[in-house]
Structures are given as structure tokens and as C-alpha cells.
Amino acid sequence: MDMDMDMDVPLPEELELLEANSHFYEEPYIDSPPSDPYPPQSPPLKNLEIDGSKRPRNSGAIESPPEENKRTKRIDIEEEEEEDWLRYAPPEETNVELAVEKDEEVYLSRFMSAINGGCMPVTAPSGGERVYAKISGAQRDEGLEKLNRKERSKGLLPEPVNVLLQRVEQQAFAKALEASSEHQNDITIPKTTIVHEQLWVEKYAPSSFTELLSDEQTNREVLLWLKQWDSCVFGSEIRSTSDEVLSALRRHSSTQHKKSFDLDFSRKHRGRRWINGNNNHIDNVDHGTNNLKGMQDFWNKNSRLTGPPEQKILLLCGSPGLGKTTLAHVAANHCGYHVVEVNASDDRSTSTIEAKILDVVQMNSVMADARPKCLVIDEIDGALGDGKGAVEVILKMVSAERKHDFGKENNAKKKGSKTAPLTRPVICICNDLYAPALRPLRQIAKVHIFVQPTVSRVVSREGMKTSSIALTALAEFTECDIRSCLNTLQFLHKKNETLNVVDISSQVVGRKDVSKSAFDIWREIFHKRRTKRDRKSNTSSGSSYGEFDFLHALISNRGDYDVILDGIHENILQLRYHDPVMHKTVKCLNSLGISDVMQQYVMRTQQMSLQVYQPSVAITLHRIVAQVQKPTLEWPKSFQRYRTMLMEKTDILRAWHQKIPPYISRHLSTKSCIEDLISPLLHILSPPNFRPVALHLLSETEKNNLTQLVNVMVSYSITYKNMKSDSLSSNMGHEAVSDASALSFEPPIGEFISYKDYRSDHHVLALAMKQVVLHEVEKQKILQVSTGKSAQRTDGCCNGDQGVVGKGASVAKSAKTIGENAGAGTKTFEDAKNISNTKQGNLSTATVSSSLVSSRRATVEAKQKSTSDFRKARSGFDFFERFRKPSSRGSLDSEIAVVKEVTLERDLRPLLFKFNEGFTNAVKRPVRMRDFLL
Amino acid sequence: MLWVDKYRPKTLAQVIVHEDIAQNLTKLVTEQDCPHLLFYGSSGSGKKTLIMALLRQIFGPSAEKVKVENRNWKIDAGSRTIDLELTTLASTNHVELSPSDVGFQDRYIVQEIIKEMAKNRPIDTKGKKGFKVLVLNEVDKLSREAQHSLRRTMEKYSASCRLILCCNSSSKVTEAIRSRCLNIRINAPSAEQIVKVLEFIGKKEGLQLPSGFAARIAEKSNRNLRRAILSFETCRVQQYPFTSNQAIPPMDWEEYISEIATDIMKEQSPKRFLPSALKYLIVLLVRGKVYELLINCIPPEIVLKRLLHELLKKLDAELKHEVCHWAAYYEHRMRLGQKAIFHIEAFVAKFMSIYKAFLIATFG
């Protein structure tokens, strides 16, 4: 292990040499001649194995001995220089033959034993081998150590090591000789005819971690994640995953990754085949740095814990054919797990999946294969109904885990309990991260997104004449789907054709229908692929045509034009394009308008076939605004927000409209309500010259104004309502409302003019005034109901209402008279106010007044206003409020005078009372409720 | 109640603003019969008031005894049943409804409900008022299909039913319907008429009106009587006794739009041309503000119209024609389309483009 770590960093001169070599040869698939001398010692068998498989590809397999050929058929390994395979995804392969894996492990263990024997030159035989050993050495050693304990090696090789070794050296020498020539075709066609029954996809599936073609970063993180399970899965006695190892792994994944990017940069100008890679490059960087950051945190948190990693679920996602399944299998195998796969072909109802997971998690096999199991749930997003079951079960288990203490020993298995905690790693694999079924899972799982690999080097060793350009084109056509590439290649190979660009473009098989996510589509639209276009103009007929075709296919495959255009609309103004007189902007918005008109027409006439013209709008936009730099995109939320808010407001309006009595509302449409009514109404409802004093202190005109105001409020069925102060302050921001209980209009009509960044000059009534008005309104409502009942409005609304007005006035008048004879004492008692305060405190404790009342009273007192005539009929909000006894400073009577108001109404509403309350101690006399009810 | 409602004329005889029309209508209904009527005119000109007065003229005071009914209708439309909720105002002799409330399903309202109502002849054996009146509001918002269904109904049940249609613009009512109705155009009241009404109210309320004050309100009200009376009352509440130069509170949404217009214009001033990046920000800003307006139920057409109005105020004369043209163009598109924001924004961008080009041409 230590030695491997020593070899972590490749020497710079070596790297340079490698690059120079690959630069030299147009054909990318020739391995550079090994820069290291071959050590004479016996290298591990693993290396031999790989070398043997590599040789035929490079220099021709003539020399390779028959048993090696056999081996290549089983595990054909594509080895490459490290920085190449960094960026390739492995072929997705679901059925890794167990035998193969076992073989691999055996070799690995042999390899380990060789190391244990003190054999140093692990990396000796070829340059490529040296490099990959360096990458994952630490990890592999990790896994192998454990494996060694589980499984003893079996010597499977028929030949002794020395013989093989000699052969390897020969081959390496031959390769070095041939490397300088352009001759790369091999003559192994007769051999391949034997094996072409087998799918190439399976044939070339990677079987060990180092052979994975997928993104290096992702590979490492998956492995790291799996490693973090070690302590709890394998128990503390095999605490092989020491902290140093993990930290080394972490260091690896950061430094190596950065290095690979550097390499990318340096390679930029090398040849056309890298160009496509650079398109994804920025993406990679972003993604990588994010991941790294996340991993750092993750690491810091978890480094000292003995339990499983914080996220119990690993969610791998990416488009098909990137090698997610392969990665999961290989990585799990590598870490010494026995992989149990549940995929879409299995039954995935909740019950079965739960049983299965419990099986996996809790039981150990009694068979020979006693490795702990690792559950791989493939295609979890596949079927909504079934997949959901799986997701639910997993969620349940994870949440059960959360409830337990974190540092709990996880070895303790809870047999029988329904929701056992998760004690084995679970890897979920999906194609679409944003599938609805996965939403809950996304939050708890550690998510890895597979980035698209660069132009994949799917080398056909089956004797096909290929060129790098053709392969590049193929990879591009299949969206870097390795599986699809291989399938296509095999298909073409059957015809024994040479692979060239024209073929691929003409082949129908090479194309996939891919529907990408909306984000990808927006990105494509806003992003100008300059480099790609350059190449296309070289290779194909016209750049614009190819681009058009590409975008058209992209958009029409997605099909969701509404969302796409919304997204364009949302994001287009964030772009920075050169546009001095705004012609481009106008054009863009015009195009969007056209698409909207079109959409509406299609929807109205239901002529869906017209939808085919929608993509062209987006393509037009692309031609206008596409930029080279990557846009930052947002999901279009504002239109949805607008819709929902509009609905809400319309509902408020409509509800209000229906509450307004018909003789008014019939003249108002909702539209004219908004346009004409609301602003003046708000002005009218809060007159600025309204003195917040007691009713009896108002002058005659003021009283009339108040009556008028109350009238308006009643006829438009507006009242005040208690609101939380925060929502109120957001509504009427400029009014500093410090009170906890503030009043605002009941149909929130004030909100209709509270635009963002807009200050209306509406006056807002003081709180005390609002309370007065509120009481008046409540009273008025009751009066109106009763008069409405009695009068029944036989002669039109107006008469009845005038009656109400008159009645209201008379009520006010009577109140006034009462107030006035009370008012005489007000002045005399002005100075004795503090006394009255305390007395009021007594009063409030003596009476049954609620806290709300006292708080109100306090406010009123603070304003040095006497609030008289709190008359509260049965419109009160709670029971006590009805019997509240507000204070009136005016009356000096020594007892509570109960004045009945409108005697005519007494029988209808026995609870309409008027209290006049005194201030002296003599008032403190218990009064029974029924005395009031007389 | 507000003055708007308080001083609304109850009978045709009380009508101040459209006296001639009121007289004609009185004559019309004394003939025992009336044709289908189509009232159209801008908002705040008195259509509904005239219709109500007319109904009272026909049926007497009982027409004002209305009750609100919120009914759910189940309509069997072939394979499925559609649930519709519709609020109606009904007296014994007439029914008022706004079929456009239900949106795109208004066709069913017309086909089923209105037909149903029209079929049932009121049991009034006197034979004199043997017809029922259906008042349909906002006919111009009816979909084309609904309007087509309507015209058959109008003919078929004309024996038992009269339709009074009410809308803002007759151009959105199909030719067929217009030809089946007596079209009555209600003009927006002129400033003098508004002044007359305001003075009438002032006299009733016992207010001192300084000279020219009513005229100012009338001018501000944009020939909208409702708005004039409301702002009159607002002024009364704000400050009384009146002074002739008293501020008349503006409509908030209009203020807001004029803020938008200022935003658009201000950044275009010839002194400092903005870098192009900033201009998108303006469009973005405008987008946010327009969304605010739309959220608060201001119809997009009104926003566009008002925006144009505000822009024209600040514009050089030679550009006005072009800007108006484009405003019309985008409004047309807006009505064809669905997402008003696209088109309003396009108009803003277009305006900025035109204005910018003009500034460059003028000031170099």
C-alpha cells in the first residue's frame, strides 16, 4: 500500500512524453511506447493479464498465445493511458459473469501476495499499466486486503508465471518496434468470427475498478462512499479502512481530478478528437469542484465516525449507457460485497422489495460466498408505480435509522422489526434524476450525476478499419453512449465494412432518440457550440444545417414546448449579447410572441400537428442570441407564480364581489372594481382628517362623516380584521405598526394596490380609529340586518338603506347625547387620570374582560383618548367580548348604568347593551349576567 | 354607500347624462315590446345604470327585488358531464348573468342554461309582460363558439325572451348577433356632462364647489363617470372645504404604470447611453413590474394601453405614430395569444429600440 502511494504522482516528464507521443500519431489508439524499462522481476499476474489483452489491439495478436486469447474473449479490457480513460465511461453491462469477477479477484490477490512478498515493481510492464496502478493503488489494496481474508486465492493459470512474463516482454518489445509505424490494423478477423456470437457490450465490459471508463471523479467518490461502510459492515476487527487510507483516497480524488483537467487543457489543441471533450469541460469543472467541496464537508463530518456514511443511499444518475450499473457492480465487488441487483424486470412492489432489502441487509449467506451483500436497485425511476414502492421502503428504512442514535453499533441487527435500520449499502441507479418518484429520495441520498464522457474510445479490436474521425462521429451520434457505440460497431462489423463518417451518418442504427431534460435544451439553445461548428463545417456539408438539425431533433424529442419557451423567456434577458439598438431583443421577443400565438391557436383548434413548427422558433432564437459562454439558467417560475397569484387575487375579488349586496355589485364588474374603485375607495375609507377621539367629542360634521364612512364600509361589506403585525407591515409597509394586534381590511383590498417598489400615498387610519370604526361597522351591520328583515326592501334598495342610514344616525345621536352628559366630567377628571388608570386596572381584574380588551384600553389610554361607547353586540368574536365593559371616563355615576339601546330591537337581540362605567371604587360591585339580560 | 351608488338614477326619468337615450328607451318600452338590445360603450359611461332603469321602466319596482343565486349546473356534454358554477341575479322577470365568468366553457352556459331559461315562459297570464329578460354582461368576452350558439337562441326563443347584452366593445361581438339586436351606443360622458353630474351631487350634498374644480376632476377622470364621482368623493374625504387647486388622488395602478414609463424613458436619455447589458436589466425590471400589475388583476390590455398613454406623453411628436402602430400590433398579438407578458415585453423592447434609434439619429 505504501509503495503504491509513493507512486501517486506521475513524473512530469513522463506525462510530457505521453502527451507528445499521443500527439504524434494521428491514430489515438496506439499506446505510446512504454517509457519505463521493464523490470526483470516477476510482475503480478494481473498485469500480465491486462497486457496480454492489450497487445492484440496495439500490435496484432499473432504472437499472443492461445490461452491468452481465450482470456481476452472473456474479459476484454481496454486499457488506456490514465488521462484518457479518466474521461470515458465504461460500457454499461448488467451481467458481469461471476466467473470473470472471481478470476479478477484471484489475480488481484495474487498481485497482493506478490506485493506482500516485497515485490516492488507493480507498474513495470507497460506505461499504461504503470499509470493506472498509480491511480487506484490505495483503493485496490484496500479492497484486496479484505478480500484476502474472505477468499483464498486459487491458482487458475495453467502456465507458470515465468513463461507468461517472457511472453509479455516479447510483446512489449514488438509493440515498441511497431509503434512508430502507421500500421495499426490487425489481422485477427478469422479469430473474431468465432466469438461474434457474444455481444460486444458484454465482451468489452470492464471487470475491475481500474478498467472503468466512466468519470474518474465519480468512480472515486462511489468507492469512497462504499469504503465508509466498511467499519460498520465488516465490523471493527477489520478496520482496514483506516483514516489515512481514506484521506489518501480523498486527496487522490482531488488532486488527480485537477490534474486531469490540466491535461485536458493542454490537450486542447492536439487534434480534433479532443474538441468535443472541451465542450463538456466547463461542466466537468463545475461539477467537480462542487463535488469536491461537498466531499470535503462530508469527509470532515464523517471522518471520526465509526458508523455508516451519513447518506445511506447512493443515487447514481445519468443518461443511458454511461456505465452506471457497471460502476456499481464493479465498485461493490471491489470493496468485497456481493452484489444483489433488483432491476426493472423484477417485481418491485412494496412488500417484495421490503422483503428483499431485509434479506440483503440482515442475512448473511451460509453458502461459500459469505461476503456481505450490497443492494443495487437499478432503474429505480423506471416505472412510477413500482419504483415508488421501492423508494418508499428505502425512505422508511433510512428514517428508521435516523431515529436511532448515530453512533450506534450497527452490527446489532433487529430481526423482526418492520423497519430495520439500513446496515448495508444501497445503490440506486436512475436515468432521470428529476423523476417525480425520486423526489423524496433525492433529499436523503448522496447523488452522483454522471457527466457525459468525452468522445469515447470504443476501440474495435475485431479487425475493423476505423479512423479516429469516424469513431468520434459515432460517439457523438450515440451521445457518448458506450453501449450503443459497441452495438453499432458490432452491427457494422458483421457487414465487414470499414467504418467511416459517411457510413455512420447514413446508418440509421447509429442514431438514438434521446429526450433531454429541459435544462439541457435551454443550454443548447443559449450556448453556441463554436468548436463543434468548426469541425462540422470541415466534415459535413454546412454548419447551419447540422446545427439546425441537431437542435430541431433535440427540441422536438422533448416536445414540451410550453416549458421550453417559458424557460427561454425567463432566461433570455440574462444573456449578454451585443445589441446596441436592441434589434436582437426585439426579434427574440417577437419570436416568443409568435410561438405564444401559435400555441394558443393550436390549443384552441386542437390541431396538434401544427406543433411541429414550434422548434423552429427556438432555433431562430438560438441563431440570434446564442453565446459561446455558458449561460446560467433558471427554471421558469415567474409565470407560474403569476398564474397562481392571479388566481388567488381573482378569488378574493370574486368572493368580495359576491358579498356586496346586488344593488351595488350588479353595476360593478370585477374589472372596473380594480380599475376604478379600489384606489378611491381606500382613500374614502381612511380619511386623513378623522380625529381619533371619542364619538361624543366629534363635531356634527365629523359625526356625519363617520356615519357615511361606516355606511360605505357596510354597503361594500368591508370590515377590519385582526391581523398579525408582520403580514400587515408587509401590506402597508410605510405605516409603522408596532402593535401586536393590528387591524386591516377584511377583504384585503389594500393588497390590490400594494405593488412592489411602489409607495401609495394612502393615509392609514390610526389603530384606535380603526377600532372605533370597526365597532360602528359591526353595530351597523346588525342594525341593517334587522331593518332588512323588517323592511324587506319592498320598495327598492335605496329606501331600505336610507332607513338604515337614518337609524344609524339616530343611534349615533343617542350615543352622542349620552356621551355629552358624560363628557362634562371629562375635563374635570383630566388631571386625575393616573388614578383612573389604576382603577381601571382594578376594574379589568374585577370584570371578565379579556386581555385583548385591556390591551386596547391601554392603547387608548396611551393616546390620552377616552374611548366611550364601546358597544358590542353579539358580533363579538368571543364570548367574553360580548360582555366587555369598556371604560368611559365621563360618567361619574357610582354604579354601572345599563342603558338599553334601541328598545325596538330588544326582543330580537337580547344582548345588545350599552355600558357606562364609572371610575370610583364604588363601581366594584359584582353584577350578574342575567341582570343584563333583562 | 358611496355617492356613485347613492346618486345613481333609478328610473329613466332621473337620468342626467344620456337623456336622449333615456327618452328613446322610454318610448321603446311603452310600445309593449322591445327588441333584443345591445348596449355598448366604454366603462363608466352608464350602461348598466340605463339597463336597470329600463328594467324598472318595464317591470316596475319589482325589477329591483333581486336575489343572488349561486348555482351549480351539471351539463351533459356527450360523454362527460361538466360542472359549472354560475352566479345569477334574478328577479321575477329577469335574470342577470355573466357567462364569460366560466371561461372557455361559456359555450355550455349559452347552449344549455340560457336556452333553459329562455324556454320557460313566465306564467303571467295577463299577456302583457309575457316575456322574460335575460341580461348578459360582458358579451364581448364570450368565446366565438358561445356567440354562435347565442344567435340561434336569440331567434328561436324570441317569443318568450328578450336579451339585453352589455359589453364594452361591439367589435368583439359577432356580426350576426349585432344584426339581431338594436344596438345602443352609450357614449362616454363628455366633460361637461360630468361636471353637470358633479354639480348635481355637490348640490345634493350641500357642498361648496369652487369654480373649475369639477372640471378638473372631470378632466382627470378620463371621461369615466364612475371614476369622476369616486374621485369627487375622495376629494371630499381628503379635504373639505375644497380649494380649486386641490390635489386629486390618482389611481394607484396608473401611477405605477407611469413609473414604469419613466423607467423606460429615463435610461434612454441622450446624455448617457447605457451599455447594452443594462438595457436588458430595464426590460427585466419592467417585466417584474408588469407582473405585479397583472397579478393584481389589472387586465393586460389596460396595462398596455395605459403604458402607451404614458409613453406618448413624454415622446417626441414624430415618433408617436410609429409607437402607436406598434402598440396596436402587439395588442393584437396579445389577444391572439395567451401569455400577455411576452407581448407587453416585446412592446417595451420595441419602443426602446425605436427610441434609441431616434436618439442616435437626432443627437448623433
UniProtKB/TrEMBL annotation, chain A:
Species of the source: Gossypium australe
The protein, known as: Chromosome transmission fidelity protein 18-like protein
Region feature (Disordered): 1-83
Keywords: ATP-binding, Cell cycle, DNA replication, DNA-binding, Nucleotide-binding, Nucleus
Quaternary organization: Heterotetramer of subunits RFC2, RFC3, RFC4 and RFC5 that can form a complex with RFC1.
A Pfam family this chain is assigned to: AAA
Entry GO CC: nucleus
PANTHER family assigned: P-LOOP CONTAINING NUCLEOSIDE TRIPHOSPHATE HYDROLASES SUPERFAMILY PROTEIN
Molecular functions per Gene Ontology: ATP binding; ATP hydrolysis activity; DNA binding
Bias-annotated ranges (Basic and acidic residues): 67-76
Domain of life: Eukaryota
Biological processes, Gene Ontology terms: DNA replication
UniProt family annotation: Belongs to the activator 1 small subunits family. CTF18 subfamily.
Principal place of residence: nucleus
Pro residues: bias regions: 34-43
Localization per record: Nucleus
InterPro entries recorded: AAA+_ATPase (IPR003593), ATPase_AAA_core (IPR003959), CTF18-RFC_complex (IPR053016), P-loop_NTPase (IPR027417), RFC_lid (IPR047854)
UniProt entry tagged with the keyword ATP-binding: yes
Residues covered by the AAA+ ATPase domain: 310-456
Biased composition (Acidic residues): 1-17
TrEMBL record, chain B:
Keyword field: ATP-binding, DNA replication, Nucleotide-binding, Nucleus
Source superkingdom: Eukaryota
Gene Ontology cellular-component annotations: DNA replication factor C complex; nucleus
AAA+ ATPase domain location: 33-192
GO terms (BP aspect): DNA repair; DNA strand elongation involved in DNA replication
UniProt keyword annotation of Nucleus present: yes
Residues that span the membrane, as ranges: none
Species this chain originates from: Gossypium australe
Record-stated family: Belongs to the activator 1 small subunits family.
Subcellular location: Nucleus
Quaternary assembly: Heterotetramer of subunits RFC2, RFC3, RFC4 and RFC5 that can form a complex with RFC1.
Protein name, per record: Replication factor C subunit 3
Task of the protein: May be involved in DNA replication and thus regulate cell proliferation.
Keyword ATP-binding in record: yes
Main location: nucleus
GO molecular function, one term: DNA binding
